[in-house]
Design goal:
Length: about 80
């Protein structure tokens, strides 16, 4: 699954266009490298997103095309 779509489906970022813009601006890092929106997300990847002055790190637990809102948090685990 594309990185921008994964960020939207997992609800780490609310909208796909915003996820795409964050990737284009270089604010999304996967496994230590700046990633483009077209990056293919795999289980075990570590995603780091810079939101202004705070950073969110998450590890991918599963990749599914559609998920219910209350089950979206099962797709990743937050890393401190």
């Amino acid at each position: 699954m594309r990185l921008d779509k994964y960020l939207k489906v997992s609800r780490l970022i609310k909208r796909r266009t915003v996820a795409n813009e964050a990737c284009d601006a270089g604010r999304v890092v996967v496994n230590g490298k700046v990633a483009r929106a077209s990056y293919d997300v795999k289980v075990g990847d570590e995603i780091e997103i810079a939101f202004g002055n705070k950073t969110v790190k998450a590890r991918v637990l599963k990749v599914v095309e559609t998920v219910k809102k209350d089950e979206a948090s099962d797709m990743f685990e937050l890393i401190s």
